[in-house]
Automatic annotation (TrEMBL):
Entries under Pfam families matching the protein: CT_C_D (PF02682)
GO molecular function per UniProt: ATP binding; hydrolase activity
Listed InterPro entries: CT_C_D, Cyclophilin-like_dom_sf, PxpB
Span of domain Carboxyltransferase: 3-206
SUPFAM superfamilies: Cyclophilin-like (SSF50891), PH0987 N-terminal domain-like (SSF160467)
Keyword terms, alphabetized: ATP-binding, Hydrolase, Nucleotide-binding
Name the record gives this protein: TIGR00370 family protein
Alphabetized SMART domains for the sequence: AHS1 (SM00796)
Organismal lineage: Bacteria, Pseudomonadati, Pseudomonadota, Alphaproteobacteria, Rhodobacterales
Source organism superkingdom: Bacteria
Gene3D superfamilies assigned: 3.30.1360.40, Cyclophilin-like (2.40.100.10)
């Protein structure tokens, strides 16, 4: 996968790797983001204002009064061509209360797939999800890696108020709602884990390159975890892995 460069207006460039959602391309983008950030921090790459990693591309915003696109572009491609080490990732084990009021699509999705609800839960909770990117809403993690049988189109008409913590599927992606709001995703359950909390030192819980595994919990345990989370306690701790 040879990196390519795309202009984005007069103050941003995008480095693109690959043409599809791919874990290898995503790992290279995350490593590139760290390398560009370090070069900017050290002063080796002047004029860089912000970087935004996505599934297979890295947006680099720059100050055109400090560096020109014709100078920045080759530098970005040179960094992208290096044998960059994979960025460090973390594994999060996330409790999930399947079904119920929030997981309102569990029964229908199981019927659509020809599975029992228990089989669907086993498939969903038995998958290692990769956080490909953060976007759309604060702390909203786009999750990839789910088996094809779980791929499900979004609803034709979005619901107007889905709560924070709702665990869903949209197409081939998974998610955990970071804030309450409208959504066309189909939801299987709910987690008391807060993926976005502006009161925390690090408001976003997840970052690109992390991995997530869900494990089922019952209503009583979910309520107890929610009470602890609402009191400001960190109810999950990540394990260090490699991206």
């Amino acid at each position: 996968m040879t990196p390519s460069l795309l202009p984005c207006g007069d103050s941003a460039l995008t480095v693109q790797i690959g043409e599809s959602i791919d874990a290898e391309a995503n790992a290279r983008i995350i490593a590139l983001a760290e390398a560009v950030e370090e070069a900017a921090r050290s002063g080796d790459l002047a004029g860089v204002l912000d970087i935004v990693p996505t599934y297979r591309s890295l947006l680099v915003r720059y100050d055109p009064e400090r560096i020109r696109a014709k100078d920045l572009g080759p530098r970005l491609l040179e960094i992208a061509a290096r044998p960059l080490a994979a960025a460090a990732g973390r594994l999060w084990r996330i409790p999930c209360l399947y079904g119920g009021e929030v997981g309102q699509d569990l029964q229908e999705m199981a019927r659509m797939k020809g599975l029992s609800p228990e089989e669907l839960i086993a498939l969903h909770s038995g998958t290692d999800y990769r956080v490909f990117m953060i976007g759309f809403a604060p702390g909203f993690a786009y999750l990839g890696g789910q088996p094809e049988i779980l791929h499900t189109p979004r609803l034709p008409k979005p619901r107007q108020n889905i709560p924070r913590g709702a665990v869903g599927i949209g197409g081939q992606q998974g998610n955990i709602n970071s804030v309450a709001g409208p959504s066309g995703w189909r939801f299987l359950g709910w987690t008391p884990v807060r993926s976005f909390d502006p009161a925390r030192a690090e408001p976003f819980l997840f970052r690109a390159g992390d991995h997530i595994r869900f494990h089922p919990v019952g209503p009583e345990e979910a309520r107890a975890l929610e009470a602890r989370s609402a009191a400001g306690e960190m109810i999950v701790t990540p394990e260090e892995i490699r991206a």
